[in-house]
Design a protein that fits this description.
single chain, 5% helix, 386 residues, five-stranded antiparallel β-sheet, binds calcium ion, 1 helix, mainly beta, Jelly Rolls, Immunoglobulin-like, 2 domains, eight-stranded antiparallel β-sheet
């Protein structure tokens, strides 16, 4: 028979083991070089066994001879390569988010686009920064600093689909803009072929767009069990740098199967589309930077640094580039985005379900190692269902 004491211990150990199964990531130590290009080792628990498959990470750094106006390299600065250009090639621009360049996506009355092919997948995590440089216009508008006079398909910011014809009527389908701005009121995750129509912000009452600065848009989409029938999961986040962080979540069918009857994504375009006229295109030159694409199971597993110990309060974020991943240890290359040297920052690890450590792990960004402060245990709790 159990004594009271052993029964109590059993209850505690059961509690702990259940907690371990469902616990959020908990960071114990962060060591290494906390400057861009450095490698940090993160130890702890609950990171999950599945890390991300990163298809691409591009800060548009160029090489030692690159200059503004040069064609952007198809070899990404940080991981992977682009598959192709659109009709016209993007160029380096000095209105950067991470120095020294961003990607200019419109010039001379023409869209400049990059295209990325990925292995067939129904799950993707995509993050990228955008800005309208000073003196430039919003797509479809002739007035600097103003939205268009009326709604139309002027700007599909990024576009995921099945193959190069995914967006076409009668094409291979499964297209979703990430997001689009079709009615001059709502930002929406929607496409030409898919049944999805999911609002992710509203210009007048739920705004994240700014005409003066940078925004990071991140989206995690995961198709349902039968992707053309079962609802999948949607998570969309908009970070207005220095201002606010907004998130939108829901469930909806994400795929239509298209003409090939296969529910899959195989391609992502940056930008997706500009639909203005020559008159509205005169001062149009949106720039994109720090584009990160991960696909497959674990796509959303990631490491970020933020500027606040409470993630939801962060007003700046940067994605690190994981090099190895296990439940208790991650090695990641540091990328600091627009954080300044020696800034106070907080490390967040997200597992494959997008769950992160509750309190950011404090670090000081610099070229120096290291931070080895041991944080107290967090998240020792039982989650009743999942
Ligand atoms: Ca950059």
């Amino acid at each position: 028979m159990f004594s009271k004491k052993s029964a109590t211990l059993l209850a505690i150990s059961t509690l702990l083991s259940v907690s371990n199964v469902y616990a959020a990531p908990n960071i114990g130590t962060v060591t290494g070089s906390l400057a861009t290009g450095g490698i940090v080792q993160i130890t702890g628990s609950g990171f999950g066994s599945t890390g991300p498959n990163i298809d691409l990470f591009d800060e548009f750094s160029g090489n030692s001879t690159s200059k503004a106006g040069d064609v952007v390299s198809l070899t990404a600065s940080d991981a992977g390569s682009w598959s192709s250009y659109g009709t016209y090639q993007p160029t380096y621009d000095t209105n950067f988010h991470s120095p020294p360049f961003s990607m200019r996506t419109f010039a001379n009355d023409r869209m400049q686009q990059l295209q990325k092919n990925v292995n067939s997948t129904t799950e993707a995590f995509i993050s990228y920064w955008i800005s309208l440089p000073q003196g430039s216009t919003f797509p479809g508008s002739t007035v600097i600093g103003s939205y268009p006079a009326s709604g139309a398909s002027y700007w599909k910011l990024a576009w995921i689909m099945d193959g190069p014809t995914g967006y076409q009527s009668g094409g291979t389908g499964d297209d979703i803009c990430l997001p689009t701005y079709p009615d001059n009121t709502y930002w929406r995750l929607m496409g030409n072929n898919t049944p999805l129509n999911f609002p992710v912000g509203r210009r007048d009452t739920d705004d994240w767009f700014t005409f003066n600065g940078w925004m990071r848009l991140s989206v995690w989409l995961k198709g349902g069990a039968i992707p053309t029938v079962d609802p999948g999961s949607i998570w969309f986040q908009a970070l207005t740098e220095g201002n606010r962080l907004k998130e939108y979540t829901g469930n909806a069918v994400l795929f239509n199967g298209g003409s090939n009857g296969i529910a899959q994504w195989t391609r992502i375009n940056f930008p997706g589309w500009y639909g203005g006229t020559t008159a509205t295109n005169v001062n149009l030159r949106p720039v994109y930077d720090d584009i990160y694409v991960a696909t497959g199971p674990g796509a959303v597993a990631r490491v970020e640094i933020g500027d606040a110990p409470d993630y939801a309060s962060c007003k700046n974020l940067a994605l690190l580039l994981p090099k190895s991943w296990s439940d208790g240890s991650i090695s990641a290359e540091v990328h600091t985005g627009s954080f300044v040297a020696n800034a106070q920052a907080y490390v967040y690890v997200f597992d494959a379900n997008n769950v992160h450590n509750t309190v950011g792990f404090p670090v000081s960004l610099s070229g120096q190692s290291t931070s080895t402060v041991f944080s107290p245990p967090q998240n020792l709790r039982v989650i009743s269902s999942k």
